[in-house]
Amino acid sequence: MSVSLETRGLTIRFGGHVAVDHVSCVFRPGELTAIVGPNGAGKTTYFNLISGQLRASEGQVLLDGADITAESAPLRARRGLGRAFQLTNLFPNLTVAENVRLAVQAKAGVHYDMLRPWSLRRDLIARADKILESVALESRRAHTAAALSHGDQRKLEVALMMALEPRVYMFDEPTAGMSVDEAPIVLDLIARLKRDTSKIILLVEHKMDVVRSLADRIIVLTNGACVADGEPAAVIASPVVQEAYLGIAPKEKGNAA
Amino acid sequence: MILSGNPPRGKLLTALLVLVVVVLALAPFLFPGSKPANVAAKICVFALLVASYDLLLGYAGIVSFAHTMFFGIGAYGIAITLYALGPSWGAILLGLGAAILVAALFALAIGLFSLRVQTIFFAMVTLAVASAFAVLASQLSWLTGGEDGRTFRVPEMLRPGFRLIENGPFGITISGRTLSYYLVFCSVVVLFLVMLRIVESPFGRVLQAIRENPFRAEALGYRIIYHRTLANVLAAVFAACAGALNALWLRYTGPDTSLSFNIMIDILLIVVIGGMGTLYGAIIGAALFVLAENYLQTLMGAAFGALNASGAGFVANFFNPDRWLLWLGILFILSVYFFPTGIVGKLRAEPKS
């Protein structure tokens, strides 16, 4: 079943500051939309409004046509909104395997089972192991999340979202702070996800080479407002983007962050 | 598997736990007399009580000061029914059932009303509710016996005068006291194993996730208020069981033995000394704490006498048995300083790089 996601006039104000300003956008299945913009443009806040970590001051979020603006983050997650966070957001004193198993368990809807030990849930353990392999973390499974390197923590962050098998993937700068060896593992993963045309993928990303190679569509946010939306080539070439975003260093490709 | 795939981890720790459990299991035969029996029974009750608190504090990361209230509900449940209905096993079951029900309902109400708010506010709410409950228990003297509490009779089999075996093989005598002790010991073992199973279950893992990062747990789709509330209810039920066992052993329930805030402080000290988030810490912590509480004074008395006799009067004063609380305090500070993760945390081989 394919999915539809839409924001209508989505707005949030913090006091007098409008962090996200009437953003209306329809996201289509099978499309990877990159959301770009300078620091503080409201990209992560926009994500938080969609996945429910923040409540909108105005406007709506619609998933499969249903208004989910008033729903809490856990309910939205259960509906299929998956989120990987920009600032690594793990369970630091649990092991890598336990982190992923928690996500697998959430996907399986096992919330209150307290009579069977985890070790008996071989089905869930096997699925968690498969996901760890897909991000090349299987050798670190017995370490605590806090003991991982920054790059490995980023991979685990992505693994948690993968384990939820969401219908909408929301990547918030998935490769930030990763080494050149590590970034391709995550980027390959996103490229593989793209092949499933029933999913929506949203990607906040600063690295323009990543955006160029993966995005089917680019949205540009500046001061919370959507200033450009369209095909990557057209958006990157548009004057508003050159000024608002790439204007800082128009010649310097792939290093806009 | 009996330990639910959650072994103690660490050789020294396992050895220590086996030692404590074996000694407790054989206590009536190893140490005859009423004081050792009281100490052993108190260790058992506190191991259960502290483990149930650890479920809340160490696993779910919830700070509650109402744990003695649930302990008290269990104790009064037994006392009131046995006092009113006379000594019978039916009355015990009725009292236990009623206590569990009341404890669960209280915990549910407190949880749903106040677990939404921040940890510190929840702690304050529990403190207020627990204080109100303690006042209520001492005021409703027609029901609870007020400050005097209730002394009640237990079924024949559990009375000190009862003899199951008199001068049996090896001169063993099994009295009602021994049976009482084994009722406490076996109940604690079973309930402890149930708790081990709960923390190692998918539900228990979600509790740990909430403790570690509630924000992320929500983003995965866990509605954490329900998990927290359920943890609160479970902890309350186990605490009520501990209270009921304590009442059966003492054949008495009063504010000082069941609702006093001193018990809450003891619970906090034991859970910190033993190690939070381990459950096993409750056993080690309770054993050490109760032993120190009961025998430190004796030990100091001996040292005091010996030093005085050898003429070192000034040094001897430090070991005056009246100062035993000072030494308990020093031991506590040292143990927190040297074992910030508790004794179990220190002895455990942690999964790290």
Write the layout of secondary structure elements.
The complex is a heterodimer of chains A (257) and B (353).
Chain A: E1 5-14, E2 17-27, E3 31-36, H1 43-51, E4 58-63, E5 66-67, H2 73-79, E6 81-84, H3 96-107, H4 122-134, H5 150-163, E7 168-172, H6 183-194, E8 200-204, H7 208-214, E9 217-222, E10 225-230, H8 232-237, H9 239-244
Parallel strand pairs in A: 3-8, 3-9, 6-7, 7-8
Antiparallel strand pairs in A: 1-2, 1-4, 4-5, 9-10
Helix pairs in contact in A: 3-4, 3-5, 4-5
Chain B: H1 11-30, H2 34-59, H3 67-85, H4 89-114, H5 119-139, H6 141-144, E1 150-151, E2 163-165, E3 174-175, H7 176-199, H8 202-212, H9 214-219, H10 224-250, E4 252-253, H11 255-258, H12 261-274, H13 280-309, H14 313-318, H15 324-338, H16 342-347
Antiparallel strand pairs in B: 1-4, 2-3
Structure report:
The complex is a heterodimer of chains A (257) and B (353). With 257 residues, chain A is an alpha/beta fold. Chain A is built from nine helices and ten strands. Chain A has two domains: 1-80 and 166-257, P-loop containing nucleotide triphosphate hydrolases (Rossmann fold, 3-Layer(aba) Sandwich), CATH 3.40.50.300; 84-161, no CATH class. In chain A, β7, α6 and β8 form a beta-alpha-beta unit. In chain A, α3 (96-107) packs across α4 (122-134), α3 (96-107) runs parallel beside α5 (150-163) and α4 crosses α5 (150-163). The two termini of chain A are 37 Å apart. The model of chain A is unreliable at 249-257 (pLDDT under 50). Chain B is mostly helical. Chain B has a single domain (11-347), classed as ABC transporter involved in vitamin B12 uptake, BtuC. In chain B, a hairpin with an 8-residue loop joins β2 and β3. In chain B, α8 (202-212) crosses α10 (224-250) and α12 (261-274) packs across α13. Chain B starts with 10 loop residues before the first helix and ends in a 6-residue tail after the last helix. The mean pLDDT of chain B is 90. The interface between A and B is large, with 41 and 34 residues.
